[in-house]
Amino acid sequence: SYEVTQPLSVSVALGQTATITCGGKNIGSKNVQWYQQKPGQAPVLVIYRDTNRPSGIPERFSGSNSGNTATLTVSRAQAGDEADYYCQVRDSNTVLFGGGTKLTVL
Amino acid sequence: EVQLVNSGGDLVQPGGSLRLSCEASAFNVSNNFISWVRQAPGKGLEWVSVIYSDGSGGNTYYADSVKGRFTISRDNSRNTVHLQMKSLRVEDTALYFCARGTVLWFAWDIWGQGTRVTVSS
Predict the structure, then answer these.
(1) I need a surface site. Which of A82, A95, B6, B16 has the fewest CB within 10 A?
(2) Exposure class string for A85-103: b at 16+ Cβ within 10 A, else e
(3) pLDDT by residue (tens digit) across B32-68?
(4) A48 with B114: Cβ contact below 8 A
(5) b/e for A51-60, b at 16 or more Cβ within 10 A?
(6) Closest residue of A to B108, CA-based?
């Protein structure tokens, strides 16, 4: 079955750029979504269909997807961006999540 | 306000049953794809099930981990989606969220607040 992998943690200095990767075999052929989840809260969709931002999501959040890696980029990182981030894809009629990446803003 | 409200979570013994509810406001569940997603304590997200919109056939699909034990259904008169869970296992312990699909059925823009299910003797 298909698998997606994420790093357990990523650290970024305040105001700098963070990149979170999501790996999977030929993931570039799939639509990738990214969710942000803060402690005690429901997840929030920040990127859908690889590169699209829902209404209300800052332009600082961007996505890309090619080959075997999808990437979420958080530019000008703020303290409020500290959260767990999950990538997600559809595989046939099921949905798979990566294990999640904890983003720490230093 | 567009929102989903979860309810029905409880403490239940292994082998028991429970029905979770997901009530929508300001939109019709009949016209939308609604999924259930769960999160075990301290763990990541796991998709559980989806029910397609009426216009797309109302099909239902399940994760292998719950297939044959969980059933998703929709009550259009109450604008509510249910998740009937039976033969519950300790590993079903989790916070259960429902979520609405947007341009893709698996891109979820609206989430419920979650309802907690604990399976323990």
Answers:
(1) B16
(2) bbbbbbeeebbbbbbbbeb
(3) 999 999 999 999 999 999 999 988 899 999 999 999 9
(4) no
(5) ebbeeebeeb
(6) A45
Q: Contact A54/B109, CB-based, under 8 Å?
A: yes
What letter represents residue B16's amino acid? G
Q: Regarding beta strands B11-12 and B115-119, do their DSSP bridges make them parallel or antiparallel, or are they unpaired?
A: parallel
**Beta-carbon separation of B44 and A99 below 8 A:** yes
Q: For residue B102, is pLDDT > 90?
A: no
Q: Which of residues 11-70 of A touch B (CB under 8 A)?
A: 31, 33, 35, 37, 42-45, 48-49, 54
* CB spacing of B107 vs A45 below 8 angstroms: yes
Question: What is B45-73 written as a DSSP string?
Answer: EEEEEEE--GGGT--EEE-TTTTTTEEEE
Residue A54: DSSP 8-state? P
